[in-house]
Design a protein that fits this description.
12% helix, alpha+beta, six-stranded mixed barrel, 21 strands, Deoxyuridine 5'-Triphosphate Nucleotidohydrolase, Chain A, four-stranded antiparallel β-sheet, elongated, 358 residues, DNA Methylase, Chain A, domain 2
Length: 358
């Protein structure tokens, strides 16, 4: 990725990326940038996994329809003079991604979902060995093929090199292993689409490593301070949204009037939250007692006072310890205000009360 593109993403997200190579947790060489606001993420430990550790041949598995993955030898195959350059052994026709042949004894090349045909998406590998004692006499361009053993030419000195083995593409299951996915995870779609989605995907164990730095979320706590007569707020059930607030004194509310109740309760709200006082449904429906809604700001630590209305025709009495209202803790947003001349047009616009019909 170009540095200028990287910088744009960093500005938009507000964090700098960390580069992690999937080679540390898998058999695939795959350098990627990860933008995260999770603090303290470091590189995972190197598990030392090579391609040879995950291929079917070395884990005692048979390949279904192996011929579809085999790459035929032809006269264009050239072996590099230095035999291995970053895992590359040689190439067919011309040296490009789709034509390169790699070693299984190193890391697999990066899976590419949007690469071209041939072996561009998954790579092709030599399953066998190059004879250590090279044939020094020139072969005059001839190749000798006897089953899986054959002579080919080096790219530079034209010397014959004996290869014992075969060349094939990686199977979708092997590519799943390179992305640390369970075997068969992408089964159910064509191989072409399997290679594509695997090449476009994340290495699962890298993402799991990053997420491992998320500290376990402790249960959110709210500090409560009580005056001499204050009563600790409670929840009747663990799943109740509201905390019941009790009166520490006897309270009488005349019909069609209101009173202010001093609860003796002080709270320290969790960051990013506010408190809202709401009526108890039982008091509202059965007795006509409602709470004048109030918002408790995050920074307020004074006493919670409650205004109660009696909309009934009878005096209502509360004993000390009776529930009078409920406190609901909710997150809030504090967007920056921007003064504009016009607002974005919407389907409703300025149509107000009753505009949607009965």
């Amino acid at each position: 990725m170009k540095k200028e593109y990287q910088d744009v993403i960093s500005v938009c997200l507000g964090v700098e990326p960390i580069e992690i190579n999937s080679a540390l947790v898998s058999a695939q060489n795959r350098k990627r940038l990860y933008w995260t606001n999770i603090p303290g993420v470091e590189h995972p430990e190197d598990r030392g996994i090579m391609l040879k550790n995950i291929i079917h041949e070395n884990v005692g598995e048979k390949i279904v329809n192996p011929k579809r993955y085999m790459v035929p030898f032809d006269r264009t195959l050239q072996i590099l003079d230095k035999e291995v350059q970053k895992g590359k052994i040689g190439y067919f026709r011309k040296d490009c991604q789709a034509n390169r042949v790699y070693s299984i004894h190193g890391k697999a090349v990066t899976l590419c979902g949007e690469a071209g045909g041939g072996a561009a998406k998954m790579g092709q590998y030599l399953f066998g060995r190059i004879a250590p004692d090279r044939v020094n006499k020139r072969q005059n361009g001839r190749r000798f093929n006897d089953g899986n053993k054959f002579y080919t030419l080096t790219a530079q000195d034209k010397h014959g090199v004996l290869i014992d083995g075969y060349i094939r593409k990686l199977t979708p299951i092997e590519c799943e292993r390179l992305q640390t996915l369970p075997d068969g995870y992408t089964e159910g779609i064509s191989n072409t689409q399997r290679y594509k989605c695997l090449g476009n995907g994340w290495t699962v164990d890298v993402i799991a490593h990053i997420f491992s730095y998320i500290k376990e979320c402790e249960q959110m706590k709210m500090k409560v301070k009580l005056d001499e007569h204050g009563i600790m707020p409670t929840r009747a059930h663990d799943t109740d949204a509201g905390l019941d607030i009790m009166t520490p004194f006897e309270v009488y509310i005349q019909p069609q009037s209101s009173v202010v109740v001093h609860t003796g309760v002080h709270i320290e709200l969790p960051p990013g939250t506010c408190g809202i006082l709401k009526s108890k449904s039982g008091l509202s429906i059965n007795h006509g007692i409602t709470t004048v809604d109030g918002v408790i700001d995050e920074g307020y630590t004074g006493e919670i006072t409650v205004r109660l209305l009696n909309d009934s025709t009878e005096t209502h009495a509360f004993s000390a310890g009776d529930k009078i209202t409920q406190l609901v803790i909710v997150p809030y947003f504090a967007p920056e205000l921007e003064l504009v001349d016009e607002l974005e047009a919407t389907e409703r616009g300025d149509n107000g009360f009753g505009s949607t019909g009965r």
